[in-house]
Design brief:
Length: about 160
């Protein structure tokens, strides 16, 4: 009897874990920024789960370990027509990317203005979260003349929706 219960418990646990894996996402935001690899996986989140059939915005945030002053990367897409799998560009769509290198108020943004651009490709969007890739050219936003630019390549993200 004990052997049967152990086998049955193991089988039920396997089914439960397989069901959970089917509805979860890896939590990561990563990219090469100015040629150096960065991973923002200490805190990763997407917006709250959509309350309507049409998803009007996608927001993703990733932060490295170290608290509020740690480096972070985030981006947001606003789509009145509804976000779906596909590629979005800051010059055409309401999309912007933001990199905060940490330790100061310095912020780099790409939103399609002043020689910047940001591209995001959604490869998955469903009731559990979002996945995809991103790249761009971001400019330091501090009001100075000739602010430096950063190139972002090989970006990828996988984020579950916030669930409170």
């Amino acid at each position: 009897m004990k052997k049967t219960w152990t086998c049955l418990s193991g089988a039920l646990l396997s089914v439960a874990l397989a069901g959970c894996a089917e509805h979860s996402r890896g939590q990561v935001v990563s990219a090469e920024i100015a040629g150096k690899p960065h991973t923002f996986d200490a805190l990763v989140s997407a917006n709250d789960p959509p309350q309507e059939e049409r998803v009007h915005f996608v927001t993703v945030f990733g932060q490295q370990a170290g608290g509020a002053e740690a480096p972070s990367f985030s981006f947001q897409l606003v789509s009145p027509e509804g976000a779906r799998v596909g590629t979005y560009h800051s010059g055409r769509d309401e999309l912007h990317g933001t990199y905060h290198p940490g330790g100061s108020a310095t912020v780099f943004q790409g939103n399609g203005s002043y020689g910047t651009h940001f591209t995001m490709t959604l490869t998955a969007i469903d009731e559990y979260g979002v996945e995809g890739t991103f790249s761009g050219v971001l400019q330091r936003w501090d009001g100075g003349d000739n602010p430096p630019m950063l190139t972002v390549t090989n970006g990828r993200f996988s984020a579950s929706y916030n669930r409170y």
